[in-house]
């Protein structure tokens, strides 16, 4: 009984990793090609190939080392590339200072609050 519970938990964990990989792939597919170049990251086809291979390996050749490599690639995309690309797509400056880039009240040493 304990082993079946562990197998269920492990299956749920691998399903969560698959969902994360699919999320990263779909996000990369929906972004503009020039946004990747604007933030000086790898190209859109590069990320689509890496994330697509990661999904295919997890679905069709579930070898733990290859799954781990794919998950690391997805985490790098989600943590590093996604915020930068999304910042460019929204018109920001690559994620500086918040979702829209720098605030209009930011000075050279931080936000200006009007002497308050």
UniProtKB/TrEMBL annotation:
Q: Record keywords: Heme included?
A: no
Please verify whether the record's keywords include Lipoprotein. no
Q: Which InterPro entries match?
A: DUF2516
One Pfam family, short name please?
A: DUF2516
TM helices/strands, residue ranges: 6-26, 46-79
The alphabetized UniProt keywords are: Membrane, Transmembrane, Transmembrane helix
**Regions of compositional bias (Low complexity) in chain numbering:** 102-116
Region (Disordered) spans which residues?
A: 87-116
- Show the ranges annotated as biased composition (Gly residues): 89-101
Q: What is this protein identified as?
A: DUF2516 family protein
Q: What is the lineage of its organism?
A: Bacteria, Bacillati, Actinomycetota, Actinomycetes, Kitasatosporales
């Amino acid at each position: 009984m304990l082993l079946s519970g562990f197998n269920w938990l492990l299956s749920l964990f691998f399903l969560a990793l698959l969902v994360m990989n699919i999320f990263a792939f779909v996000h990369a597919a929906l972004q503009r090609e020039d946004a990747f170049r604007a933030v000086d990251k790898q190209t859109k086809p590069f990320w689509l190939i890496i994330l697509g291979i990661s999904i295919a390996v997890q679905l069709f050749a579930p070898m733990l080392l290859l799954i781990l490599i794919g998950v690391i690639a997805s985490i790098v995309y989600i943590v590093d590339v996604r915020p930068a690309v999304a910042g460019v797509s929204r018109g920001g400056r690559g994620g500086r200072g918040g979702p829209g880039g720098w605030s209009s009240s930011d000075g050279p040493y931080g936000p200006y609050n009007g002497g308050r």
